[in-house]
Amino acid sequence: MIKSKLIKTLTLGICFTALSSNMVLANGGVQPSILPSDMIEIDLNQVIDMKRLPVDLLDTSVSDLRQEPREISGEMIQKQKEIDRYLFKDHVKEIEKKGFAVTYTGAFDDYVEIGITPYNEESAQYLYGIFGKDQVKIVEGQQASILPIEIDAIDIGVIHVSESTLELKSQRIKEDSGVKIQVNGEFLQLDVEPFIENDRTLIPLRGVMEKLGAKVEWYPEESTVKIYAEDIRIELVIGEDTAKITKNIDGELKEERIKLGVKAKIVGGRTFIPGRFVTETLGAKVDWDNSSRVMMIESSNISDIDSEGLPIAEGKFETKGSYVIKDDKVVFDFELMSHYTEPKELQFGSGQQFEIVIVNEEDEEVYRYSDDKFFTLALIFKNINPGEAIKWQDEWDMTNKEGEKLTSGKYQAKINVLVIEEEKKEKIEKSQLTTIIDFSL
């Protein structure tokens, strides 16, 4: 007889779940082999937390537990198949752009359970909006991990999961959550931690790039990140596995597309980018210390720049902005510049020609330029010559929508230039009419 001495309650729980539910794992891993029940003997005194499970279960064999399998209706199985097709085949990219991952689905008596990570109400409501709430339950999911098993060299029929193995696994979990970033010998204090996926380190967009002296711009409508450094621009689209690199070589712009080992993604509302690829593309040297799980970045040729350091390709507009804090007000100066080689005529409303929205660190809106304002609706035309710009200015008195004065914190201003497009004219990409300004009070 083969004896399986399992030490942790979790292991038994995983076995019971696998035997009793119709489960689909998102990673599509190989199905484990299951020994016949009459060949398994479990020391339940070691396995079970006696304070949490009924005492009479201690005398129940695994084979008895399997004698009455739970029946799942064909309706639920069919619904699970439809959900799986939507999540894992037809709409994978849309799910990735929402910033969460589906770890599994499981059919139960009268509902299908969907596990997601990280779990938050916004993601759950998004899925409920697609599948409804009557027969669907969204829960926090965890990615499965496989423990290494030690085989007794003398009696191969005895399988041990030792305490040292469990401690090692626990240590690995702690290490995985503790990836650090070091730039020129200095550890960065980040408000969110980097993590590893497909053997690639994903780093938070904000914080690391600024430390390297690069400028970062985020265009939420297009899910696009633009990173500027001297004579180079990197564009990443959330959920896509390619990056566009634009280099200024002797005054000539050259573009290329590079395949990524891991996609940029949004996790918990924060944007993460492939760290090694981006930093090396910007000219930095990157090393990895596996023992301490530190990404070490050395950079000597990246200095503070503005996106003006890299000319925009001809045939485009560019929106740029800056701010100053003066007399208890934040003053924004911004402009729409033409990189076309011929004059352009743009159509605006005679009243509102731009919108400014300011959000705090929790992404809560604290100011909107158009609130409580009334604008005329007449149309006007403005001409803009090559290399010239149309300029605007706005002031924020640092009060929120409740009229409270804000004196500290980090904020982000998103500025949109409101060009009214004409049907027969060339369409202007939204990213050309948008700029993001990060600032602190």
From TrEMBL:
It comes from the Bacteria. Pfam families: BsuPI, Cu_amine_oxidN1. Transmembrane segments: none annotated. Residues 1-26 form the signal peptide. Residues 319-418 form the Intracellular proteinase inhibitor BsuPI domain. InterPro entries: Cu_amine_oxidase-like_N, Intracell_prot_inh_BsuPI, IPI, Mao_N_sf. Residues 182-297 form the Copper amine oxidase-like N-terminal domain. SUPFAM superfamilies: Copper amine oxidase, domain N. Keywords: Signal. This is Intracellular proteinase inhibitor. It comes from Clostridium formicaceticum. The lineage of its organism: Bacteria, Bacillati, Bacillota, Clostridia, Eubacteriales. The gene is ipi.
